[in-house]
Write a structure and sequence with these properties.
By secondary structure, the protein is α+β, with helices and mostly antiparallel strands. The protein contains 1 helix and 2 strands; from the N terminus they run ββα. It has a single domain, classed as Roll (Ubiquitin-like (UB roll)). It binds zinc ion.
């Protein structure tokens, strides 16, 4: 498999977080997806896309059990 963006050939499955926003909060969801080592492009297959859409819908419905691990801070300068 070659990267569609940079045509690099070093694509490996990695553990990454996909982030979704809910109001001012950011929720991180763990994913295992192929990632291009050269440009960082992530390749989501159909199953991963469906999972992401399902999580997005659940996040809006507030049915997910979430744990706070930190704060999101904004620089005012
Ligand atoms: Zn690439």
């Amino acid at each position: 498999m070659k990267c569609l963006i940079c045509h690099g050939e070093d694509i490996q499955v990695k553990s990454v977080y996909e982030e979704l926003a809910r109001g001012n909060d950011v929720v991180r969801f763990p994913f295992e997806v192929p990632v291009c080592a050269n440009c960082g492009e992530r390749y989501y297959d159909r199953a991963a896309m469906r999972k992401l859409e399902r999580l997005r819908a659940q996040l809006e419905g507030k049915t997910l059990e979430l744990r706070e691990i930190g704060k999101v801070l904004v620089c005012q300068q």
